[in-house]
Every structure is written in C-alpha cells, then in structure tokens.
What does this fold into?
Amino acid sequence: QVQLVESGGGLVQAGGSLRLSCAASGSIFGFNAMGWYRQAPGKQREYVTSITRGGGTNYADSVKGRFTISRDNAKNTVYLQMTSLKPEDTAVYYCFAGYIATLPNSWGQGTQVTVSS
It folds into this structure.
C-alpha cells in the first residue's frame, strides 16, 4: 500500500510560479517512476512529467522549459517547480508512482492549481 500526499497548489496570476510537493509513504520501494498528471475541467487526465529513481526526466511538450521536476529519494518526495504559468495550466494536479510513467500504480488525492489571466 502506497500513500501519496500532494501539497502546494493554489491560485496564481499568469506568469507566476508555484511549487508542488508529493510525499510518498508505504511500500514504494521498487516503484521506479514518480511524477504528475493533471486534469482540467471537462478534459481527460493528461501526463505532465515524470522522474525515475535514477533522475531521468521526461516532460509533456506543453510544459517543457517551464516546469522542472526533481526528486529526493531519501525523503521519498517529488517536487514540481512550475514557472511562467498560463491559464491553460489550470487543473487538478495528481501525483503518481509506478514502475513506468505510462502505467501509474498509485495516485495522490490531487491538488488544485488555478492560473488567472
């Protein structure tokens, strides 16, 4: 059983920054990938970014150059630094953990990010 707890969401103006955190606990050993998906109102959940235990990263084209993911393995925590935020980044952001990024095994409860224009 893995528990993922996100924090750091909120309301920010376009062009601003936010930092999300995701703390993992439980049987996370063996899950190589952690990262984030997001879901905007009326849309499907979409992949945002992921990082492997070794530090390899991947980003959706829509966030490349603006978002940075990092990971503290000792704390089982993943961070998402979001800069140059746009209104279209508004969504609920979900942390995930899994063997590979495209097949998440566990999800956090989600944290709301709202970017005003």
Remarks:
- DSSP finds no helices and eleven strands in the chain.
- The longest strand covers residues 91-100.
- The chain has a mean pLDDT of 94.
- Residues 2 and 26 are 5 Å apart (CA to CA).
